[in-house]
Amino acid sequence: MIGKRSLQRGLFEADNQYLDFVGRDTFYGFLASQRGKLFQDEDFAECYSPDNGRPSVAPSLLASALLLQTHDRVSDEEAKARADYDLRWKVALGIEIGEQPFAKSTLQLFRAQLILKKKMRAVFERSLELAKRTGYMKERRLRVILDTTYILGRGAVRDTYNLLGDGIRQLCQTLAAAREQELEGWVQAHQFQGYFGSSLKGEARVDWDDEQARNVFLQGIVADAQRLMALAQEEQATLAGDAPESQQVAEAGQLLRQLTEQDVDLASGQASLKEGVSRDRIVSVHDPEMRHGRKSRAKRFDGHKAAIGVDAESQLITAVDVLPGNAADASPALPLTEASEENTGQEVEETVGDCAYGDGNTRQAFAEAGRKLVAKVADVGRKDQIHKSQFRIDLEAMTCTCPAGHTTTTLIPTGSWLDKKGQKQPRRSFAFPVAVCAACGLHRQCIRAKTKRGRWIQLHPQEGVLQ
Residue 159 and residue 214: Cα distance in Å, rounded? Predict the structure, then answer.
């Protein structure tokens, strides 16, 4: 049930005692002055049950915490710590010095609800409207800085067996509701009760060291999933096409089908786990938009990405979008720039990003739109190897010359790349002969890979320059 903040200010609240100490003209002081104006608890009523459960942490406070978190660019754990111990945050949130207003999981769940209810943008659009109305954001041409941060999803990440079990449970619940029957009775009548224990995999009597036993267990789950999807199709045929129940059954059935197809190989007629991980793999039934993502090569997360545009001068957020966790950081660069103009009513003079925004597709998109993008080109290649930039490319003669003076005209296919429309395009590389490279005095500095081939130099697929 939604919790609400009292309109009456407390004598011992930090903004009442320490506002001048923190500074009225700081971001924290400004946010404190807007308590009750910027966000009202009623704005978020649809994210909560209207008539049962314990009162939640006031959503207006959590919305302010999200703004502070984005402004200070801190993690969920650090945001919780600052709300507990940072005087600036306590002033901005309007809480008492000794108060610890929310748990990390509370902030994560609130953000997940905003994503699910399509209200994530509303938090930042409301603050931007207020900044324009109060004159905090002045009329001028903008310099917008782009960045992304990861958002943990609200669903538990499951392995294939339990993930399929979750999908079966969800579709069973949907079908029972469509029939207006008690879940337990419907499940027993259709013999799916084995999926409603504490853990499908944990309760199974399977020798997990035996591959054949694992495959037999998986085959049983897949057979039940297929039988259940057939029941869903039969049920849909009895429902009106525009009925809410029909849509719910269709969505739950499609989700179960995706879960089966992404992880299970049925080509041989026998179920077995696919090798590798599907690029767009669903990792949780309870938050199906979650994806495996990486903030760096060493740091992986499961959830979503928040992409933001920030005005460099005022530090106000001008645009925000929520992406799948596995989306490229640069994918919303141009839309965020355009949204910044639409949200502020001011022209964006320059868009700035780190090397994640310096790829050829993004640069081409900005050039075609007549916009200026400032982004560092990523330094690719091994640091202990002669860099690609030291090779001379002649695009008219289509030759490539190495630092030792050897020239090749051989172009070979080396995979593919996705253009801005998501279509595969061939990728080509100049290839130097094995014999030439083996006899070269720079061989040790040039070729580090343990392969019996010469050096390959990849040609950029668009402009004909090196990646």
Answer: 13
